[in-house]
């Protein structure tokens, strides 16, 4: 296993992956069972924002899917002021330690709904979306190309489960990724609706936010209930927040190995992440460690 190292700063770290294990023996046991199952038993579930993409880009925080739109400067001062006001009001509620889970959930639904309504009112078009992605401060995590090629080569199902915006995510792959989406990939996220002239008319399907991304959600449940996915009883989960762990909640997996990218405030958050994830990659690191694991599965 890679050397375990504590990261002192964590704010603008380099790409070399520094890895912590919650329990090295438990990790080894889980991973050997996944390796024994081979590629035919494996599925990958991944978050998008700051998991497949980097947290730090050009010396500042990278753009999430929503930030690509909110910070684009392409939709008028009123829209950008509105989204900033919403963030200032609701983000403190998202992280408030004394807020009940029920109230937190209600606030997140309210935030996402108002943010999406603001997008519709601002007059987003497909051309504006493409231009916003083009100028975004967004960079895929080093090693993502190798990861996508590995997935495609071995036919492993790759679910991207995001509380962002599917249309932005997919456009980011078209414009910024070293590789296209694998043929085995599936995107579950908030998806825009457009009219025949390319004007956004709203969102379709289930509304996702950071606290309701779980395998039993109605939009994703059919994906997991196919014969193909029932045979994929080993799960590799990739995320960057504690809420991302819910992406496998409700799955009947034989083994689930969780890998968390702790991109920022490493010293402050390391203990909480180690209590939750099997493996924690510190300081906005690359996919090298994940690729090393996957090559072991492929060599079975």
Brief description of this entry?
With 300 residues, this protein is an alpha/beta fold.
Task: Give a description of the structure.
With 300 residues, the chain is α/β, with parallel strands linked by helices. It has two domains: 201 residues, HAD superfamily/HAD-like (Rossmann fold), CATH 3.40.50.1000; 76 residues, DNA polymerase, domain 1. The protein is built from eleven helices and ten strands. The strands form two sheets. Strands 1-10-9-8-2-5-6-7 form an eight-stranded mixed beta sheet. A two-stranded antiparallel ribbon has the order 3-4. The N terminus is likely disordered.
Alpha-carbon distance between the termini? 18 Å
- The CATH topology of the largest domain corresponds to Rossmann fold
Order of helices and strands: EHEEEHHHHHEHEEHHEEHEH
The percent of residues in helical segments reads 40-55%
Spans where pLDDT lies below 50 across 5 or more residues? 1-15
Q: What spatial form do the alpha-carbon principal axes imply?
A: globular
What structural category do the secondary elements indicate? alpha/beta
> How many beta-strand runs?
10
CATH architectural arrangement of the largest domain: 3-Layer(aba) Sandwich
Question: What is the CATH homologous superfamily assignment of the largest domain?
Answer: HAD superfamily/HAD-like
The radius of gyration is 19 Å
Layout of helices and strands:
Elements: E1 18-21, H1 24-37, E2 42-46, E3 56-57, E4 60-61, H2 65-70, H3 77-95, H4 101-122, H5 126-135, H6 144-154, E5 158-165, H7 166-176, E6 185-194, E7 200-204, H8 221-224, H9 227-230, E8 234-239, E9 255-262, H10 266-276, E10 279-282, H11 288-298
Parallel strand pairs: 2-5, 2-8, 5-6, 8-9, 9-10
Antiparallel strand pairs: 1-10, 3-4, 6-7
